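Hi there. Long-time user, first ticket. I'm pasting a complex I've been working with (about 949 residues overall). I'd like to know whether the download I got is complete or cut off, because the file seemed smaller than I expected. Thanks.
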Amino acid sequence: MTFTPEQAVVASILLCVAGAVLTLLVSRNKTAAGWLAFAVTAVTAAMIISAVANVLTTGPSAHPALFWAMPKFGFALRIHVDGLTAVFLMLTALIAVPAAFYSITYMRHYEDYGVARYYPNFLLFLAAMYGLVSTTDMMWFFFIFWQLMTLPGYALIRFENKKPENIRAANKYLIMMQIACVATMIGAELLAVTGAKVSASASLKYDFDTVCANLPVMLVAKPGMTALAFALFLVGFGIKMGMWPFGQVWLPDAHPAAPSPVSAMLSGVMIKTGVYGLMRYFLWLVPPAAAADYPLAKWGLVVAVLGTITLFTGTMQALKQEQSKRLLAFHSIGQIGYILLGTGACMALLPAAGPNAAALAAIGFFGALFHVLNHGIFKGLLFLNAGSMLHATGTQDLNKMGGLMKFMPLTAITAIIASFSISGVPLFNGFVSKWSIYVAAVQGSSSAKYLAVCAVIAILTSALTLASFIKFFGVSFLSRTSALVTAHVAKHGRLEVGWMMQLPQVFLAALCVLLGVVPAIAFNVIQAALNASQHSFGVALAQAAPMTGSLLCGLEEINSAALFAPVALAMVLGLMFAVTRALSKLGAAQRRAAAPWLCGYAQEADCHRYVAHNFYGEIKRYFRWLGGKPRPQPGKEPDLKEH
Amino acid sequence: MKLLLPILGGLANIAIVLVLAPFFQGVLRKITALIQSRQGPPIWQSYFDLLKLLGKEDIESGESPLMQRFAVYLAMATVLTVACLVPMGFAAPMNAAGDVILLIYLLTLCGICTLLAGLAAGSTYSLLGTSREMMTMISLEPLFAIAIVVGAVHTQSFRLDTVLNGSVYASAAFPWSGVIMLGVMLLSFQAFVQRVPFDISEAETELMEGPLMEYSGPKLALFKYAQMAKLVIYSALFVTLFVPWGTGLMFPLGWLVFWAKVAGLVLLVTLVAATHARYRIDQAIRYFAVLLLVALVALVLASYGY
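Hi, the file is complete. Here it is re-exported in full:
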């Protein structure tokens, strides 16, 4: 029996809902519920991945599949899996499986909380994300899936409900998501026409096809109304994805409050549904015939500038953080900025007249979509790392950590791979997507002047990201063992997490390296996705096909004006590494371990260690006006001298 | 043939950098001594220092010695890889392996390795130095990136051979952006090669070499070697970006002109270093911030074709 991709999505959603009921029934037994939730996640992920592979290789179904229609109210459940949807479905499946597997052991360490509020919500949350990126209804089913994502998300964020700050964070999340929902639905209402017929079976007011067919008239007759609708979409999806200024309101509080695997899902997948909405509504809704009346370049300006502000503010605020998961949450805002910049550059350049404009627009889009995947992978990994650190030390406070690499070598290695990936170190996946975005923005500056400045701010921010992760990794895994870590080692004997928590981290770290060394895989997938979503502006993007290159020889863009051959680079770097190593052995020097020199003191008190709080004092001071002050920890007086 | 030329060119670049770096350091030390009315060490002293350090005891003070070793090897390996990306009298050997964005990021990676080494060493002084070094890197990287981007905007290409060929002046109108960037890079060049007045992260009088404080023996030798090599590589980059004249000459002549220009730049670095006092970190950051604003003006000019 074979499923169509659309049937696979609906079956996955139903399976997740059934799984939610079942896990609720067995929730007395944490391990059994965990394995059951993992099994459901894995089965749905397998179905989704095979559906995605099907769409990417053989093309999408010609029409959305109708599952359930209520013509009286003008809504119907129509599901369509085209290339764009496929990429987001793939990301969801790719992160959900490690997160679910990680949860099995991770959730056992909560002594005060049962899993009855965890696994069922986790599965509903997953089902909602499958649905949200594949429904074609802009109103009712959008609303249903959005709420199905928001309410379990709310329950997951306030999972540790004995801490008042978690309840506050969850409430903020709930309010912001409802505002976003209302904004997006008002936008949809503005574009809708009553009584429009799409297919013989149903008259659908809010379907993509109806709106798409109606937009050419709307753009000419009511340009102001249409612009307002698109502005509302930008606000709604901007809130979801954490765009400045909305992201700072809810995201840095919500992500650290949730259990770590959920943080990974929130940051890795959930906020990407906002990116999906932005791409879908701005680039795949307007038919090509109406392109002349649609101010895409202006929207590109808005999105690119908002993206640049988002990436700079998010990362600068992240630099100030001293809590592991709060730091990562601010970086989610920062990385979303890169995605927005890539999308904005694409939108700005697509209607431009320059010789390479279409190719550059496509490169910007490739970069943005690849960064969506990459961010899901490395940020998911980083949250799992933070979860392992929390599991081992019982704290998120970076000031109290130190020297963990000695006790948690595997977590340390995966953490440094993730840190290198997010900072864009070459040979890791983050570099390639950022590289594409820079290429599009810098070369596109001949058509849209502001893009060069945006690109330079993005490069600068990349250095800030690096600084932040040098701090994150350095003070927790390197530096010197802190009193807290010593105490935990004395109590538990070993700190490294078990293999069931290691495996998901290793899997995601391997993906980071694989996509960094052979990025052509991802670019081929994205090209296939574009080929499989050829309507509206997707046609121009698919036809531009700006990348050439092979799995081993690397990538070339716009007639090899920009190129990157990671395999060759890896070989040279590896060879040089070996040469350097040999060079250091030349003198046959003896190795000896010794304590660091403390200027004559026998040992250093824990309070004299150089901790996260002390890093980058001058930069933090210069950018104090930007906000994002770290939360003082309960039980610790805020240090007034520094500020 | 297609692979042979890059390999030979790369080996040549690496060999030149490895041989010349201690020599330049020796010259630098000698001239500094002369300016300060000292006799100074012999010009070949840096070679002897490196050789001697290679045989000295290697004390690992950190709690994660694996990371210490990894950081040291990677630091030198990255420097040598970058040497293959920079045209030094000939075309860039690894022209087909990457572009200027890769170059920017690899140069940052060299810096990160020193930071990781400092963090892994676990001394408070190392961490203090690491924090300062990172702040300097944050403020410096955009300057170099803007210089590169100005060239890329002018030439509409990211290729090493196109951009690293005086591309900052390659505009149709008078290249104001190139001239401004030349000024900016000249004013910040000491910081790129980590010399006085911007050797804040090492500051031997207060931080005792900062991130490198705990290192000895072969590891210190490699770090020192990498630092000397960086002086050569950054000078070569500066020459290719801003002083391209004469590199097109016939083989021995063009090559000699190139290295003469690099030597001239090293001399300039030495003179500035010997006659200035170190800045405080906050002074340095404010200084770079002003340069960054000027550089952004140059970038805007560049995107309008000046």
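A couple of notes from our side: The longest strand of chain A covers residues 65-70. Residues 296-583 of chain A form one domain.
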